[in-house]
Amino acid sequence: MMENYTNVLIHAARVGELDVIRELLSRGVDVNVRDEKGYTPLLIACYNNRPEAARLLLDSGADVNAGDYGGNTALMGAAFKGLPEIASLLISYGANLNSQHGNGGTALMFATMFGRNEVVKLLLESGADTDILDIRGQSAFDLAMQQGNHEAVTLLA
């Protein structure tokens, strides 16, 4: 029975159904449950740009640094999608700016590679480490150069 609740909670997080999220959490559904890919409700809410749902989950004890089975965190998802409001929310709840996924990538690298320069600025202002290298030995600066992301090159220089 709880497994059905897990799916309902993850769906509610995806679509931002705050009342459903509150009800399920009040029934004892684990705020950090995972689906088959390792996504938590917080990861899903953030990736789908649901800041109110993300805040509710965080206030209910969601692990801000939980990663999916590939090591991707909510902050990485926000960086990849270019969601500064979500990124800012996660940072305010103590998200680890320098977490690395399975290939060594960080939120800053995602933001740089995909031209999400508002998120690049936010991460740099928040103290993200620019010296981290991925498994290929590339830094965020190297990735900005390769992508021709001139604004990020300037920000990272």
Q: What is this structure, in a nutshell?
A:
The protein is mainly α and 157 residues long.
Question: What does this 3D model show about the protein?
Answer:
The structure is a single chain. The chain has 157 residues and is mainly alpha-helical. 55% of the residues lie in helices and 0% in strands. It is built from ten helices and no strands. It has helices spanning 2-15, 18-26, 41-47, 51-59, 74-81, 84-92, 107-113, 117-125, 140-147, 150-156. The model has no long low-confidence stretch (mean pLDDT 96). Keywords: ANK repeat, Repeat.
Structure keywords:
Ankyrin_rpt; mainly alpha; 157 residues
Number of helical elements? 10
Which class of secondary structure composition applies to the elements?
A: mainly alpha
SS strand fraction: under 5%
* Rg computed from alpha carbons, rounded to a whole number of angstroms: 16 Å
Measured distance between first and last alpha carbons: 53 Å
Report the uncertain regions: none
**Order of helix and strand elements from N to C terminus:** HHHHHHHHHH
Query: Roughly what is the average pLDDT, rounded to an integer?
Result: 96
Shape: elongated
Helix content: 55-70%
What can be said about the biggest beta sheet?
none
User: Got a strand count?
Assistant: 0
Give me the secondary-structure topology.
Layout: H1 2-15, H2 18-26, H3 41-47, H4 51-59, H5 74-81, H6 84-92, H7 107-113, H8 117-125, H9 140-147, H10 150-156
Helix pairs in contact: 1-2, 1-3, 3-4, 3-5, 5-6, 5-7, 7-8, 7-9, 8-10, 9-10
